[in-house]
Amino acid sequence: MSDHGDDTGSVLRLEKIVKTFPGVRALDGVDFELRPGEVHALMGENGAGKSTLMKVLAGMYQPDGGRIFIDGLRCTLPTPIAAKEMGVILIHQELSLAEEMTVAENIFLGELPRSRFGFVDWGVLDKRVGDILKMLNVDFGPRTKVNRLSIAKKQMVEIARALTHDAKVVVFDEPTASLTDAEKVVLFDIIGDLQARGVGIVYISHRMEEIFKISDRISILRDGSYRGTLITAETDEDAVTRAMIGRSLDLSRDAGDVARPGDVKLAVEGLSCGSLYQDVSFKLRAGEVLGFYGLVGAGRTEIAETLFGLRRPSAGTVTLNGEAVQITSPAEAIAHGLSLVPESRKEQGLVLGMNCRDNITLPQIDNLTSGPFVSGPQEVAIYEKYRERLEIKAPSWRAMVKNLSGGNQQKIVIGKWLSMKPDVLIVDEPTRGIDVGSKAEIHNLIRELAAQGLAVIVISSEMPEVLRVSDRIAAMHQGRLVTIFERDAVTEDDLIQAISGIGVHAA
Questions:
Q1: Alpha-carbon torsion angle 12, 134, 479, 502, nearest 10
Q2: Residues 242-291: pLDDT tens digits?
Q3: Domain boundary residue, one of 213, 245, 277
Q4: Residue 417 within any structural domain of the chain
Q5: Domain for residue 160, yes or no?
Q6: How far is Cα 221 from Cα 382, in angstroms, rounded to an integer?
Q7: Residue 250 is assigned to a structural domain of this protein
Q8: How far apart are CA 46 and CA 64, in angstroms?
Q9: What is the domain range of residue 191?
Q10: Are 105 and 185 within 8 A, CB to CB?
């Protein structure tokens, strides 16, 4: 339902929005305004209230106070369907697809076209979805089952949903977290097309380079409160960071932070896995961080999964602590002193319905049991050790990990694998979906772990990240390890050329 309010030319206006959960005031009188055809970035640390505000807008949460105006009309949005009817489309950060259904069924879920006899009109459905997929330049069709798609392709299905409605406001929540560079170009083209049609875009991302590339204005939330709006062309990253976290960040490496490598912990020679990657060789020493950098699909994650026993190599040898090993399962990898922090913490690294303590102790639960009983005091002691070491911010060990910020969830996953006392720690996309303040904490943690003698592999799609945390950087291109750079002797241009296959030479 709606009634007329003051029309200031905004397609969307949120006034003094309040949302309270038990014990937490998630939104404290937040204002936000969006103009037709603009990209308005919404930024803040994890837990600042960005997603909560957008869920209020999308009808998923009901506000405890404040007013919502769409096209100058004051609206009540009791359900997501009501929000869609008003032209508000939310593309979730967390994928919300029905895995067993087709792409077409997901895109038109609840709104499947019907024949005059009431049956689904598959011809009309395939035609509509086919036209949308052609705009997105994807390599799958309307009848493809969603569970056969990669995370990046599933994200494109989410984006396709926005193109099926007569949208006035489209909210993109971390839309590029899983996309390749080519898919990002397509996404930004789509955003440009939506702007040209007068659609207002709310863009949530922790990636500063994206924000400064496509946004017109930037609004900041901190601790559930509105901290102001900046014109993108008139500000810089440092000003945005200060508004987000209340201080500037020094993201440079300490001049004294120099690797002092010890013994070789991991040696890989001629490792191959079918068409995924071929003939990969490298060594990793105690006390150093080896970064793996490359485009999505270059084979970086697949190498990590092979080392951890999730994939079988087709050729090559792996040596851990001087011993040739054949790892066929994660249990064997752990027994040999190797741990993996996976790419997707929520899908692969955590049990979201369990508490912090149980998540950290899960891999070693067999060692904490006596008969049918688990030693609660031992579990708590392990949790408290890593809570203090990693500075995990949680109300208590009983807190459900699903309620923690992204940065603290990532620390829980890292703590889980550190508690296994590994010799080699592999961290895949360590700061995906994490705000700039938490990102700096994770980077410092990785450097501290190396300084304490751990051998660390970091896989990242972000060049500033891999340059900041690594001592050496392995550049990957189409399943090949192109070369390994010393951090102090590599430029951004060197890395770009290497991962693009320009001037490729063997490592």
A1: -80
A2: 888 776 555 565 655 666 789 999 999 999 999 999 999 999 999 999 99
A3: 245
A4: yes
A5: yes
A6: 35
A7: no
A8: 22
A9: 12-245
A10: no
Q: What's the pTM?
A: 0.65
Residue 51's SS3 state is: helix
The answer to which of 115-129, 356-370, 459-473 has the lowest mean pLDDT is 356-370
Q: What is the DSSP letter of 146?
A: G
Q: Tell me the per-residue pLDDT of 133-150, one tens digit each, with 9 for 90 and over.
A: 988 888 899 999 998 887
Residues 306 and 450 placed together within one structural domain of the fold: yes
Here the tokens at position 246 are 């209340």
Same-domain pairing of 296 and 367: yes
**Same domain (yes/no): 289, 389:** yes
306 vs 175 pLDDT, higher one: 306
Q: Looking at residue 350, which CATH number applies to its domain?
A: 3.40.50.300
Strands 455-460 and 424-428: parallel
Residue 11's Cβ-count burial label (10 Å; 0-12, 13-18, 19+) is buried
Same domain as 274, residue 421:
yes
Say how far apart CA 397 and CA 404 lie, in whole Å: 11
Number of domains the chain is built from: 2
Q: Specify the higher pLDDT residue, 367 or 244.
A: 244
- CB burial of 294-330 (b: ≥16 within 10 Å; e: otherwise) equals bbbbbbbbbbbbbbbbbbebeebebebbeeebebeeb
Are residues 272 and 352 both part of a single domain? yes
Instruction: Assess contact for 128 and 113: CB atoms under 8 A.
Output: yes
Among candidate residues 470, 432, 228, the one with its CA nearest the CA of residue 345: 432
Cα distances (Å, whole numbers) of residue 386 to 104, 182, 361, 381, 392: 45, 39, 11, 9, 8
Residue 483, phi then psi, degrees to nearest 5:
-165, 165
Among residues 245, 278, 299, the one where a domain terminates is: 245
The owner of tokens 């003939």 is 279
One-character DSSP codes across 18-45: EEEETTEEEEEEEEEEE-TT-EEEEE--
